């Protein structure tokens, strides 16, 4: 007699399986992430005792590039990008050497002043551990990809203390315009588990509720929308600087560790000539802007410059912490220009630039709630979506796959990685607002040309 297995039974078995595996993934990732954060804090405190510690950055970036070149080439860059690439191209298979090499290379880079973040290494460490675990137990390619996505979510949640945003980030960052719903539950569980473990091990997290939020009005909403546009431009600035210096580094025909030596020397020289406030994570300046201290007009540009050189020339680290810096200072600058509250718009800017630079508007909106409280969330969400639309087919993660166009007027092939999309064609609908705007711009351009002649 044959036993009939119902659909509900199969779904129950699948849910139970992934509750167990995602909890295990969160536990496996939570411990090494907490260890990394503790090592980073201790070593950074040690380096802070030296006034000119950043003069050793050329040697640090040389060592970082040397380790990565000969021990784990997949550890190059800002971490999360390589994980996205591995998921799309190799079903999430990541060499085991990536985990220790990424940890050491990032510590060396950040402690000696390299401008980078701490989330990329944690996401890559999490993805590497879950990939190795999947190989040991001979998981299918499909299950390995799901485990690696859990590793990304767990690493992101544990490093920033944002378990919900971390979970959403892991499933949203892979594609532009779509979410892998089948991995949503495992990502939530792994993110929450990793966060709880790292918290239990003594890792503390930033949380600053924004108390000043004005009464809703059409005028204020319009100002928030313009803030989203401004943050989109700040995100584009960072992305384009990253692309520019990556091309320069690639065109430099020297041994890879020498590129680290050159890049470290340039960053150290800039720090001597300008200021060292753009070195390292920059958390102190981020916290200052979130308490209402006005940022300088050039802060977000110089941080983008320092970060682009560090990550393009052999330095190792993440990109989201610098994005936080760029967003907070850009939001503060916008508040200075418009006479608005600095703390509120620093918080809005911080999440909006994440949405635009990483193409993750949902994760960034939820992050606003987890970091700054629910009062600012509606405004941050509006700015996040606008910033996301503003950046077009750009991203700090060029291996993201494009799943949707951000406008009906943009004709571009879907299903391809952003780095493979050379140029989009624009064909606005006749009589539409985009068509009228383009006609107006063309007429202005024709008039200017006639005047020149």
Overview of this structure, please?
- The termini are far apart.
- The chain folds into 2 domains: 11-200, Clc chloride channel (Orthogonal Bundle), CATH 1.10.3080.10; 218-390, Clc chloride channel (Orthogonal Bundle).
- It is globular.
- Helix 6 packs antiparallel against helix 7, helix 6 crosses helix 8 and helix 9 crosses helix 14 (342-358).
- With 453 residues, the protein is mostly helical.
- It contains 17 helices and 4 strands.
**C-alpha Rg, in Å?**
22 Å
- The CATH superfamily of the largest domain turns out to be Clc chloride channel
| Secondary-structure element order, N to C | HHHHHHHEHHHHHHHHHEEEH
Sheet with most strands: 2 strands, parallel
Strands ordered across the widest β-sheet: 1-2
Give the CATH level 1 class of the largest domain: Mainly Alpha
- Share of helix among residues? 55-70%
How far apart are the first and last residues' alpha carbons, in Å? 91 Å
Query: What fraction of the residues are assigned to beta strands by DSSP?
Result: under 5%
- Shape type: globular
Query: What is the CATH third-level topology name of the largest domain?
Result: Clc chloride channel
Low-confidence stretches: none
Oligomeric state as shown? single chain
Tally of extended strands? 4
**Helix and strand composition category:** mainly alpha
Task: Summarize model confidence as the mean pLDDT.
Answer: 87
Number of domains: 2
CATH architecture annotation of the largest domain? Orthogonal Bundle
């Amino acid at each position: 007699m044959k036993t009939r297995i119902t659909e509900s039974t199969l779904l129950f078995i699948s849910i139970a399986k992934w509750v167990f595996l995602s909890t295990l993934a969160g536990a496996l990732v939570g411990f090494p992430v907490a260890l990394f954060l503790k090592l980073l804090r201790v070593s950074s405190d040690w380096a802070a005792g030296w006034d000119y510690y950043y003069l050793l950055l050329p040697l640090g970036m040389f060592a970082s590039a040397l380790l990565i070149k000969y021990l784990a080439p997949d550890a190059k860059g800002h971490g999360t990008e390589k994980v996205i690439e591995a998921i799309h191209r190799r079903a999430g298979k990541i060499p085991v050497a990536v985990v220790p090499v990424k940890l050491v290379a990032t510590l060396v880079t950040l402690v000696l002043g390299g401008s980078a973040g701490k989330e990329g290494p944690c996401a890559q460490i999490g993805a590497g551990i879950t990939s190795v675990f999947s190989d040991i137990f001979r998981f299918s390619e499909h299950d390995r990809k799901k485990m690696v996505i859990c590793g990304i979510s767990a690493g992101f949640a544990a490093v920033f203390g944002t378990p919900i945003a971390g979970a959403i980030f892991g499933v949203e960052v892979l594609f532009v315009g779509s979410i892998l719903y089948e991995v949503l539950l495992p990502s939530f569980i792994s993110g929450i588990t990793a966060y709880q473990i790292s918290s239990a091990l003594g890792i503390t997290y930033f949380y600053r509720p924004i108390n000043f939020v004005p009464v809703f009005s059409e005028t204020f909403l319009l100002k928030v929308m313009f803030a989203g546009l401004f943050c989109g431009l700040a995100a584009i600035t960072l992305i384009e600087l990253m692309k520019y210096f990556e091309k320069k580094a690639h065109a430099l025909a020297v041994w890879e560790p020498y590129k680290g030596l050159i890049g470290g020397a340039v960053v150290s020289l800039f720090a001597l000539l300008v200021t060292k406030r753009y070195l390292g994570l920059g958390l102190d300046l981020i916290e200052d802007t979130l308490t209402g201290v006005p940022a300088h007009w050039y802060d977000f540009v110089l941080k983008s410059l320092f970060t682009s050189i560090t990550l393009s020339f052999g330095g190792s680290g993440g990109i989201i912490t610098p994005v936080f810096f760029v967003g907070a200072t850009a939001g503060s600058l916008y508040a200075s220009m418009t006479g608005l509250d600095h703390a509120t718009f620093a918080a809005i800017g911080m999440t909006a630039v994440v949405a635009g630079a990483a193409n993750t508007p949902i994760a960034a909106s939820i992050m606003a709630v987890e970091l700054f409280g629910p009062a600012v969330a509606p405004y941050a969400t509006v700015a996040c979506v606008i910033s996301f639309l503003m950046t077009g087919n750009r991203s700090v993660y060029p291996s993201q796959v494009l799943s949707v166009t951000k406008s009906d007027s943009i004709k571009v092939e879907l299903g391809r990685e952003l780095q493979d999309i050379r140029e989009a064609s624009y064909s606005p609908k006749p009589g539409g607002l985009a068509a009228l705007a383009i006609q107006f711009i063309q007429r202005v351009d024709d008039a200017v040309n006639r005047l020149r002649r």
